[in-house]
């Protein structure tokens, strides 16, 4: 009797496995939603729409971008966590999510428990800008100004835990200054705040802020990479400008709800890696100051875990200051 039951179970499993494989092979058979937990017009939104168009061409199904902003990316991330793990709801994420693991303890999810890595997309340097009314013409002058008026100057970000906020806090700590953080709901509003003079400073993605620098709407003081940005070559790095060891970037990636079938994850990873290597995409991003990031799901998993540890150490320093 036991032998007959085992034989029957083997037959049933054999019937189920091809069905699962077929479903992965046929994916996607309907529209896929990419949730961007940040505002329209920012780096994540722009990258999601570009990637969505390319994936739509490849798979013949719509990849629809939805912006779900709020709580520094937590609201949109939580929505993806609650979605079925079938590959039809994806998360466009950034180092905001890895920073939030230690910065936002009250969130209802854990990144590496409740989501599965698919692939990174790109990264870019940031740029420190000030409103033209700020008398500082260089980063050294801005630091001196901030030290002469502790707590009176402010800087904008797209919310707590975002790369712009974390880069700002890191800069404050390493430069030894006291400036006030003004969080906005999204990067577009923060950008408008510094361009309009409501806040004095912002650290923003080069890809987004470079046009405003060229239009003299803001003054660029420094970029945050280890070498000068190709799109703002006349602007020194923060290290060159007098803050040794400072570096900050923004990177983007794609995740899905935990439990998403591995064949679907691998299929999406291959498609993303092909997309970001296209010559037209590489050139577009290079012109904007961004560069593609290519990894397997396993490599991206290790990258994310290391980034979580990195920002946890930074947050500890902020808490002690």
Report on this model:
It contains twelve helices and ten strands. Strands 1, 2, 3, 4, 5, 6, 7, 8, 9 and 10 form a ten-stranded mixed beta sheet that branches. It is α/β, with parallel strands linked by helices and 321 residues long. Helix 7 (163-175) links the parallel strand 5 and strand 6. The radius of gyration is 22 Å and the shape is globular. The model is unreliable at 17-22 (pLDDT under 50). The protein has two domains: 30-123 and 251-320, D-Maltodextrin-Binding Protein, domain 2, CATH 3.40.190; 125-223, Periplasmic binding protein-like II (D-Maltodextrin-Binding Protein, domain 2, 3-Layer(aba) Sandwich).
Please write out the topology.
Layout: H1 2-26, E1 32-36, H2 43-59, E2 63-67, H3 74-81, E3 89-94, H4 95-103, H5 111-114, E4 115-130, H6 139-148, E5 154-157, H7 163-175, E6 180-183, H8 187-195, E7 201-205, H9 206-214, E8 219-223, E9 249-257, H10 262-276, H11 279-288, E10 290-292, H12 297-320
Parallel strand pairs: 1-2, 1-3, 5-6, 5-7
Antiparallel strand pairs: 3-9, 4-7, 4-8, 4-9, 4-10
């Amino acid at each position: 009797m036991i032998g007959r039951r085992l034989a029957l179970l083997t037959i049933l499993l054999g019937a189920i496995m091809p069905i699962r494989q077929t479903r992965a092979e046929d994916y996607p058979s309907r529209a896929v939603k990419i949730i961007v937990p940040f505002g329209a017009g920012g780096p994540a939104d722009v990258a999601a729409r570009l990637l969505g168009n390319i994936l739509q061409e490849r798979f013949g199904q719509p990849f629809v971008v939805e912006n779900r902003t709020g709580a520094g990316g937590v609201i949109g991330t939580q929505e993806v966590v609650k979605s079925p793990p079938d590959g039809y709801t994806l998360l466009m994420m950034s180092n905001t999510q890895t920073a939030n693991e230690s910065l936002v303890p009250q969130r209802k999810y854990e990144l590496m428990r409740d989501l599965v890595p698919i692939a990174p997309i790109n990264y870019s340097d940031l740029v420190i800008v000030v409103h033209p009314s700020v008398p500082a013409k260089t980063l050294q002058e801005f630091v001196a100004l901030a030290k002469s008026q502790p707590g009176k100057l402010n800087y904008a970000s797209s919310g707590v835990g975002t790369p712009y906020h974390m880069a700002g806090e890191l800069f404050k700590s390493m430069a030894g200054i006291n400036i006030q953080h003004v969080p906005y709901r999204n990067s577009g509003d923060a950008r408008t705040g510094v361009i309009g003079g409501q806040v004095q400073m912002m650290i923003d993605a080069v890809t987004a802020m470079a046009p405003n620098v060229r239009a003299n709407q803001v003054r660029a003081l420094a970029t945050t990479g280890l070498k000068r940005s190709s799109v703002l070559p006349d602007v020194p790095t923060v290290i060159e400008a007098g803050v040794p060891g400072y570096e900050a970037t923004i990177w983007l990636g794609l995740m899905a709800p935990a439990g998403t079938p591995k064949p679907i994850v691998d299929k999406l990873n291959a498609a993303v890696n092909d997309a970001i290597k296209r010559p037209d995409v590489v050139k577009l991003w290079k012109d904007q100051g961004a560069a593609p990031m290519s990894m397997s799901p396993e490599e991206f998993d290790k990258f994310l875990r290391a980034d979580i540890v990195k920002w946890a150490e930074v947050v500890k320093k902020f808490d002690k200051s």
